[in-house]
Give the backbone structure.
Amino acid sequence: MRTLLKKGRLVLEDRVLEGDLLIEDGIIAAIGPELDGAGASETVDANGCYVFPGFIDTHTHFDLDLATTSTADNFVTGTRAALVGGTTAVLDFATQDKGMTMLDAYHKWQKKAEGSSCHYGFHMAVSEWNRERIAEIDEMIRLGITSFKMYMVYDTMRVNDGQIYDAVKRLAKKDCIIGVHCENDDIIKARVGELLAEGCTAPVYHADSRPNLVEADGVSRLMDICALAEAPAWVVHLSTKEGLAEARKARARGQEVYLETCPQYLVLEREDYLQPDGAKFVMSPPLRSKSDQKALLEGMHANEIDWVGTDHCSFTMAQKAAGRDDFSKIPNGGAGVQNRAELVYTRGVVPGYITPLQMGKLLSENAARLFGMFPKKGVLRVGSDADITVFDPHCPHTISAAANLHNCDNSPYEGYAAAGKTRDVFLSGIHAVQNGMLVREGLGRYIPRNACGRYRK
Ligand code: URP
Ligand code: ZN
């Protein structure tokens, strides 16, 4: 089957080309200023639109069980929303709970992901690091998992610095990488105790319990751990200028550092917690200040930030109400998997912080490279998978929970005026989103990933 995309602004690896792209049997068959569409069963006019390699969301939590509740979105609802927003692949955090094997977590996540509408892979989040887990690394690699995650926080997940050191060192030797949630848990606990004792129970105190230095301390510690281990560092959901400064210092002394930020740290801020539904903004790290937003956007401009993932981890307002009288009991996380591209375009490209070329790298190419999917994914190249997002830069609209496909009654971005929107999406060549409407569901496939492509080495 042949499909011709006509007259798009094709976002290639090194330039934006005004031209055509031909899809044949799920693969990109030709790219050029003007292609012959003879024999094409469908021709799509992409005039005025950017044509990107399908976006990859490096950070989702679908169907995640917490101690007291589970996320509102599962893979079926979450990946539908992802696809409509232009995301053709998600990397979700399969989670190895204490006492469980990584293999069990892998099978559990494969089951959860059945019926997905976009492609998916898994990072393996580990809650313990011991002889048994270490013995499983090779099996994980065989199954296509080459990225892992550890948390410096959350009682059920937290590991210690020695375990992080051992993990980053071992995994680097096997061409894998491990992302770390960087915050100082002991300080957070002390500050939560202080705030609650003073009667400070509202959502805004979530931010005050985890000020910028709490993250900067975690980032600085990770940089030192990785320097000692002679391993690359990957910081998930970086949110502060101080954390960015710590990563910059490490790079200046020769370290290989990968940085992820999220749309919420580019467009939302601490004052949002003061809204009547402030609980919906409770996520970790918390929302920061305008000066942090600016530092991160400038970091994107300077190619210091590697990619933007959503950290989609949705909860309904009823679930958020668990912390009505105590901010520390509000389940952490927010919905956003559908809105990433329109937020990054509006906040990044429109004011000139980044170019459309950089947007392609931040939303797709860099993740495909590091996480072992390149060049099948992450690039418009002849021979690559035809996972393609057609983005209309002139489609002003207001983001709302009602318009999102998320299985969630709230959006942290409610009322946000977005300048552009995903119009069409091709998943392995299948025209699954047409004029903003999801027309094909459940076609997502597991992506077994290769060794990490450490492009900053
Ligand atoms: O608040 C958040 N981000 N919840 C999801 C888990 C995590 O910390 O990434
Ligand atoms: Zn997360």
